[in-house]
Design brief:
The protein has 82 residues and is mainly α. The chain has 4 helices and no strands. It has helices at 2-12, 19-46, 51-65, 67-74. The longest helix is centred in the middle third of the chain and has 28 residues, at 19-46.
């Protein structure tokens, strides 16, 4: 939950003309955080996480991972030394 709040603050406190540069990064991280919140909330409510939801975690991560290079290509002046 804290990750979603921090992500929202990063996007909201960004300058309006540079928010487009963070769009895919925030979307990718938001997908990851929302799925993790769903996974752990389901496990907390049912006392055992659903195996199908746990199996879908890899697919969700793969889906979100495609948004990070898209964000990087929108910002050519950012460093790629990661």
């Amino acid at each position: 939950m804290l990750g979603l709040v921090l992500l929202e603050q990063v996007y909201r406190n960004g300058r309006p003309n540079s928010r487009w540069a963070l769009k895919y990064l925030c979307l990718g991280l938001g997908i990851l955080f929302v799925f993790e919140l769903f996974l752990y909330a389901d496990g907390l409510l049912t006392q055992e996480p659903d195996p199908d939801v746990r199996a879908a975690r890899g697919y969700v991560n793969a889906l979100a991972a495609h948004l990070f290079p898209a964000n990087d290509s929108r910002n050519p002046e950012w460093s790629r030394d990661v």
